[in-house]
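User: what does the whole thing look like in 3D?
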Amino acid sequence: MYDIAIIGGGPAGVSAAITAKVKNKNFIWFASKAVSDKVAKAELIKNYPGLPSVTGAELGWTFGNHCDSLGIERRAEVITGVYDTGDKFTLLAGAKDYEAKTVILCPGVVASKEYEGEEKFLGRGVSYCATCDGNLYKGRNIAVISTDKSFEHEVEYLASLAAKVYFMPLYKNSVVQSKNVEIVMKNPVGVTGGMRAENLVFKDQTLAVDGIFILRSSIAPSTLVHGLRTEDGHIFVNRRLETNIAGIFAAGDCTGRPYQYVKAAGEGNAAVFYAEEYINKKSKSAGGN
Amino acid sequence: MYDIAIIGGGPAGVSAAITAKVKNKNFIWFASKAVSDKVAKAELIKNYPGLPSVTGAELGWTFGNHCDSLGIERRAEVITGVYDTGDKFTLLAGAKDYEAKTVILCPGVVASKEYEGEEKFLGRGVSYCATCDGNLYKGRNIAVISTDKSFEHEVEYLASLAAKVYFMPLYKNSVVQSKNVEIVMKNPVGVTGGMRAENLVFKDQTLAVDGIFILRSSIAPSTLVHGLRTEDGHIFVNRRLETNIAGIFAAGDCTGRPYQYVKAAGEGNAAVFYAEEYINKKSKSAGGN
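Assistant: Here's the predicted 3D structure for the full assembly of 578 residues, as structure tokens:
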């Protein structure tokens, strides 16, 4: 069991991981990429104090070096769910799970909206995880939506199991080549069905499928954590970066504007202190256990 | 009239100034030193993301270079009072004053406590400003308390006016040399008097004086801004870094723990955005004026 689980590889997640390491905390850090897409794509950042003029790629590289210099480990698994399991949280990452006393959410702002019906059918025909659920669809017809090229090996894996894959890459130049994969260059609008998901719905078309995989580099926080309070698309936090769920903190763009590197880094840093205080207070009230 | 006045030269003030400059704001920045003492004295900082291992002095130097590279001007005047004068704020800096639509307070945490009676007699025998009030004490006996060597020229100035100066330097190796200056190496405990301040009180002694100058590199926020809400020695702010006074924001250590460089820098950055929104909203509600 870890004291702190940090989810996200943007400036908030990086800062939280660095501070957790420097404070010698027992923590685990999930960041599916070395640096978030949003950082990597920033043209020129002039107001990150101490780094007078850096591109997003340079900032990412500098952050990465900082982490490396401290020997910080980054796990590439995508966390697909966080569950309150009594005195701790259980984090699902594909077929694996991890336990932590506190969670710091740094998912950034999720650009892609959830599809209509997505949450309703999650676990009943809709899945976020090829590794965990792929086997359920051997010889069946499935749809796969992916926001990111880095998931293409998962699409190939699913194609090796399924009879037929409708593949909706939400990016350009996909190179999935399996013969049973049919690329559909359209963004769906929703999922419909009865007890289970049965159709992937487009504006002008409906595909009847047995299962739908949605592979995103970040999952909407309210989907990731059941019952998490959000406001205007942001995770609600107070001045101590506490969400409405005791033990779960949030930092960075996900907590609201301004979307700024140093604001995010500052919150990631502070969240570690608040998480630490939460653990200390809880262990005291439990009589030192 | 400036849109934003930033007070303080620590990481929050630096970050606010950098972001205000990059956003091309009409602002003025008061920072009595190139870098705050607290930063300069930090031994080794390992968790400011992007600068893997820097001393406080190096961080200060790096921040200073960043400001210079953007051509940011820093004013050395110490602000001794911020007054709400209707639609704007008036900031007193010695004999000068400045006007701004919004103020971002980044004073850090004031280490030295106020003296008993200090606030009561402020403006009635107690002064923070040698330049403004020195002339009132020509040929009189005064006491001068100073937290910082950088004020010694003000002590000399006061000595050139007063008959006698009792000087309490709260640091080592003071070099004030005027003949009418008597150095007293003790920290007072309070000020007493009737209508005006009459005595500077020590644990074991009382000095009868006509005036008392207290020269500090930072003034307690609640003294600086009348009516400012504080809690446990920190300026009360909400998630938008708004204090209880509309138009006045606060950022950095002054808003509460953790006392961390990147947390302070993050707040300084965000405060500029909130100040900007405040101005925009106000100008809209005033019909575009």
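In plain terms: The two ends of chain B are 14 Å apart (CA to CA). The first strand of chain B starts at residue 2 and ends at 7.
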